[in-house]
Amino acid sequence: MAISISVVLLLLFFTVVFMRNGALKISHAMICVLLGFYLASSSMAPTIHQGLAATADLVSGLRP
């Protein structure tokens, strides 16, 4: 568990650096994809899913 959390944090760090750089290349996109796979298999996955579902419900309920 400790190894997967440290890998997630490392990939998250690189993703933030690449996004702030403004130059997202193919190699950078692959790191973002790896971050997604690690997050999906981590213990944080249900919390992330619930947060995204709640946000989608909130946005879908808004009337222009």
TrEMBL record:
Domain of life of the native organism: Bacteria
- The name this protein carries in UniProt is Uncharacterized protein
Specify the species. Streptomyces macrolidinus
